[in-house]
Structure formats: C-alpha cells, structure tokens
Amino acid sequence: MTSPHFFGYGSLVNAATHIYPDTVPATLTGWRRMWRHTAIRDVAFLTVVPDPDCQIDGLLAKVPNNDWAALDAREYCYFRSAVPAADLSHNADRPMDVQIYQTNTDKDAPPSVKHPILLSYLDVVVQGYLQVFGEDGAKRFFDTTSGWTAPILDDRAAPQYPRHQTLSTAERRFVDAQLAAHV
Q1: Would you give the DSSP letter of residue 35?
Q2: 107 within 8 A of 79, measured Cβ to Cβ
Q3: 166 pLDDT exceeds 70?
Q4: C-alpha angle with apex 172: 114 to 146, nearest 5 degrees?
Q5: What's the pLDDT tens digit per position in 12-66?
Q6: Residue of 32, 56, 22 whose CA lies nearest to 6
Q7: DSSP letter at 44?
Q8: What's residue 22's pLDDT?
Q9: CA nearest 9: which of 80, 100, 116?
Q10: Which of 36, 54, 86, 116 is most buried (CB neighbours < 10 A)?
C-alpha cells in the first residue's frame, strides 16, 4: 500500500512552515520552477512547468490519513496532480503516491511591478533549501528557477508573507548574493 505524499519545491521545503511529518529530500526530473502570478493573488509565487532538460530538488512529506483538505486550502491557487514515480528519486524505503501543486498556465502570467516577488517569501524558500540541501542545493534552487527578472519587493522590515521566518545574518547574505548573481 502506498502512502500519500506531496512534493514541495518552494516554501513547503521549509518544514517550519507546515506540520507534515516524515519529510524526505527528493529530486524531480523533467520539471523547472518558475515565478508566476494569477488574478487570485496580488504577488508572484513559485510554480512548476515541464522541462525535459531540468531537474529540481524538493521535499516529500506525508499527508496523514490522506487528508488533503488543509494543504489544498493553503495551496488554493494551484491544482494538484500525480507525480510519475519514474520522474522522482529519493531514499525513502516505502512506496509513495506523490502529488505536486502547480498553476494553470492558461490563467497565470509573469510577475510584474503590480505583482512582485515578496522577499519574505523568497527568504523562507531559500532558508528551507539551505537547511535540507545546503549551500550547493540552495544555489541549484536559483539555477533551476526561471523568472529572476521579476521585481522583488523588499518587505523584510514588515513581512507580508504569512509564514515568514527569521533568517540568520548568514542566510540573509546568501539570499542577497544569489539574487545579485541571478538578476
């Protein structure tokens, strides 16, 4: 019997932002992260798009009792779909039914001045990658994400992202250096 899991590739990599247990680092082949926005949200956020030449790191986490309601509510701008087992690599010793969240590409658009990337959101994502995958993995996050020309709103002094976290000075410097290298 398989257990239900999600593949998180953005803020869900940061375990401080959720209560889902049994996390496992994983790699998904054939996908790329991208900054997008929809009419449903005022700011840009991450989604995934097919890309046969890319692979992304992320975090698998168990969805207890197959109860997707709370996670679906958190990820309300996305739809959920199955991840083919052949596209996923991890070191877990159990079979999993893995789902991923993504936006409808016909209803989203690139970030804009009216729909910027919140730095407080990016900080949370990168902090998760640093904790799970180290600096090399966090650099891969930047390299396997498209849309870095998007405007970024520095809201660190008054975070708008509801699950913001406090970054160490070293984490903040890392984020700033990677942004400077990718913008």
Answers
A1: E
A2: no
A3: yes
A4: 50
A5: 899 998 888 789 999 999 999 999 887 777 888 999 999 999 999 999 988 888 8
A6: 22
A7: B
A8: 81
A9: 100
A10: 36
The letter for the amino acid at 36 is: R
Q: Which two tokens stand for residue 162?
A: 């509801």
Q: Is the pTM of this model over 0.85?
A: yes
3-state secondary structure 1-33: CCEEEEEECCHHHCHHHCCCCCCEEEEEEEEEE
Q: Which H or E element spans position 88?
A: strand 88-90
Query: How far apart are alpha carbons 174 and 101 in whole angstroms?
Result: 27
Using a 10 angstrom Cβ sphere, with 0-12 exposed, 13-18 middle and 19 or more buried, the burial of residue 63 is: buried
Token pair belonging to 132: 């799970």
Is pLDDT above 70 for 120? Answer: yes
Q: What number of other Cβ atoms are within 10 A of residue 55's Cβ?
A: 16
Provide the mean pLDDT of the chain.
90
In the predicted structure, residue 107 carries a pLDDT above the cut 90: no
The enclosing H or E element of 103 equals: none
Q: What Cα–Cα distance (Å) separates residue 58 from each residue in 82, 149, 158, 161?
A: 15, 23, 28, 20
Helix (H) or strand (E) holding 90: strand 88-90
